[in-house]
Amino acid sequence: MTGYAVLLRGVNVGGNRKVAMTELRDLLGDLGYTQVRTLLQSGNAVLAADEPAATVVERVGTALAERYGTEIGVLALSRADLQAAADGHPLRDIADNGSRMLVLWPFGAPPPGAPSPVELDPERIVVRDGLIYQWCPDGISNAPDVAAFVRKAWKVPTTGRNWNTLEKLLAAIPD
């Protein structure tokens, strides 16, 4: 069995795409996953599965689409994936507030020659190993909108989590 953190994109944010966490737990359990827990209200779950991440993504995405009638982006990250994101955060030494330090996972690679979100704030945004890291010392609402930039320039959505949530996921993911 492998432990995964399952991240849903764009649910329960600003009243959009409501997914109750009890319903998400039930849905994941109905798919046969074990050790299912949800964290916070923003589409975070952990579970154990006897299948590769790509299969978890496909099965959960299909079940969510059938239940809610809309496509919801899904990532399944192993403990190693999450730990690599945490260990690789190039801005963690300057950040003093985990709620203002973000990791964004793009749902695809940038096209050749696409601009980088680093252009928005070179001292506070870093692209490394396929992830985008952002430090928002004045708050997320006052920082450049990296997700919108990537959606427009790269033609792919992202999902992001702050440092505090990343640490909670790492602590909760089944071994």
From TrEMBL:
Pfam families: DUF1697
Organism: Pseudonocardia lutea
Record field: transmembrane: none
Protein name: DUF1697 domain-containing protein
Any coiled-coil regions, as ranges: none
Alphabetical list of InterPro entries matching this protein: DUF1697 (IPR012545)
